[in-house]
Amino acid sequence: MSSTTTTTPTLPTSSVDSTTTTQSLPPVTTTKEVPTDPALAGCQADPAATIAALPAGSVFVGSGCYITSGILISKPVTIDGGVYNDPVITNAGDGSVHPIIRIKDTTGVTIENTILTGANVSGGFHRHLVGQAGLDILSSSGVSITNVSVCNTFGDGLTAFANFPVNKNPTTGLRVNGLFITNAGREGITMAYIKDSFLNDVAINSSSDSGWDFESDLPGIGSGNVTVTNSRSTKGVRLIEALQGPITFDNYNGQRHVTLLDEAAASGQPITFNGGSLLLPNTDNGMPPAGITVRGPGRLALNGVAVGRLPAVRPPKGPAWSVTEGGSLIIHSSLVASPLGTNDQTSSVTMTY
Predict the structure, then answer these.
(1) CA pair distance 266, 220, nearest whole angstrom
(2) CA-based diameter of the chain, in Å?
(3) CA-CA distance, 135 to 145, in Å (whole number)?
(4) pTM given for the model
């Protein structure tokens, strides 16, 4: 048996992660290995069966810590309290996704005052383990996430999607008020297929890839009518797949890139940032071509956003924006640190004060 050291996080913690990686392939089949960890010796047994047996409308009151290899919720129940440790350091053998908590094909679930922690203590991207997320919500409505911390996962902190191919309905009506993600091994939050949802007070302290990723990996499938307020992220916002409604960030304080590309841009849905700040990279590494990138007929607006640069020894060289292939960028009452950016003849950049 192997061993790891698992630390129990506090709510919340802020840090800056500079690791950059790329989108992974799906996890492959491996052998399950559960390490022996003295730090978990005092934890209680897996509560998954107890939670599964609860009648609809019941509350599981967590106390102390638990060891679990995954909790499935498929009825309207509440988990209130507890620290849920997933010590698995390889996939479970069938190559599928194994989150700490999965909410599937149901409504009215509440997760509150909990800590979900995986075994990715050293952080970083591990290609074969990205299916091990913190929270995974599939084809469910009216889910409430309040005061939840997710850390040390090999996969995303939170994923919202549909239960394809069984249930093709998106996740709808998600309500978040306090979600703190640290050391996510892939994206901080993946908004794959989610509609009519509101997320408040979300801190993505560190993730290997994007902080916010609007990506489903399926043509024509994407999110819409999503509002995010009072969010913080160290790894930016990426919008790729077809959008089915506007995406709004109010008082977002983020670092690195904002990218609107491909089907997301072609959908023509408005992407709006109101207030807050963006700290863009200082150099142009070509991926993406600028701190703010619109490629395709997308519409991105910054209203009252302070746009600066990450701290660096040398003056910034990379452009603040790149707008091409029919894109539109509107910057209103927003200060932007130079150098500014470029747009091609098919695109427009409008700055007003």
Answers:
(1) 11
(2) 64
(3) 10
(4) 0.87
